[in-house]
């Protein structure tokens, strides 16, 4: 029996709450619609029936696993075995490849990429064919040369945008804030893969700073998530000595407003991060869509380093 990542998460929730998990709780914890929950429950019911288990719907739309001890032990063993395997769907696999290539210190080989996501070289070639035009839309160039390998070229600002975008797309708000509350929590294998690729140290520091900034107190969860990912990714890239280019043309009034917000953010960070980090919160903030303050802020921080 091969369980999907979502089925595994549902089973873990039910096992952790023997009295049953409500439909609303499943929606909230998995971050999906009610229709999706019904579809997943139907599929889960069919899958666990193969090992003699049933899905019992109790009062108040709660769900729990029912079966004898041996069958439940079989299910537990199945989960433990699948915990060791990361099974991506094509979109997730392409996101994983994008992160790997953007964070690589040099060119990668087809064989190494195939091994990293557990597919054939032929599948990797197909994935790269799909990724190439998508990366071009963000002004990034996917290079493939037999002798040299595979790598991505582009401006640092564009690389950061794609890194933030991929992480934002692959990690839903529930998982994201669950991680912030307890970084030691466990997730299904695919979710764990992407959580592990967060700039975690910078993210936790940024979250602590954000909580103390009144100007950002009214952000929605999605906005707050985007801000934190932006700050963390930009910070990590600067700490790795990757810098954005200065912008020649910009709105002076907007720059002044963004400088004040960026400096307040800077003031809320620990001295360790304030001296060695880029608080580039401008590029993806709902408050601003202009990246010029990133270069300005980095120039201020470089003077401190």
TrEMBL record:
It holds the Pfam family HTH_11. The keyword Transcription regulation applies. Residues 6-51 form the Helix-turn-helix type domain. Gene3D superfamilies: Winged helix-like DNA-binding domain superfamily/Winged helix DNA-binding domain. Keywords: Transcription, Transcription regulation. The keyword NAD does not apply. This is Helix-turn-helix type 11 domain-containing protein.
